[in-house]
Protein OPI10-like (Papilio machaon), 200 residues
Amino acid sequence: MSNVFGLIVSGRLVQTDFTPLTETTFIITIPETESINHAAVFLTGVAPLPAGTAGMVYWSWPDPAAPPSWQLLGHISNTKPSAIFKISNLKKLHELSAENKIGGAFGQQQICNYAQIGISIEPESNVELLASSVAAETNQYVTFAQKMLENLVNFVASFSVTQEQMTPTPGVSYIPLNTLHTWYQNFERRLQQNPNFWKN
């Protein structure tokens, strides 16, 4: 499956020199990652993926002290032959919690001083399983954020007073309650549109 996958990183030439590790796993090295914001991975059209499979796309930051630890970015397939991934928001290895690391996705590897993208050809059912687990996790975040915001608004509202009830207190700032309500409505709207907007 030589030259089946391609990679585009802004300001660089197209790369198609993915190294096969096994019949179903491939990696490519990306030097000088400091300026990378996005990476586009695609099927070149040389050959389709085997029927019923998808290419799960992984990212690994360089770590001079440890073998690669992979983060799942998403997937490509015959019906979705390309994808653009935002790399600049990914957490560096030392910031990752254990549950976000995928250590053995590409077997036992040597220490690498460059970032890498890996592609693992897997059954499409793995993609569907991943999509449902990501959706469930996203729903948990949205629910948590909404409950936390409601709690904050209710807590602050419990201290509200009318202008006639206010006693001037030097050095104390007051915020109109409607300002907090407007902020809450805007935050909730943005959360509904994109549950990950706060990561930017």
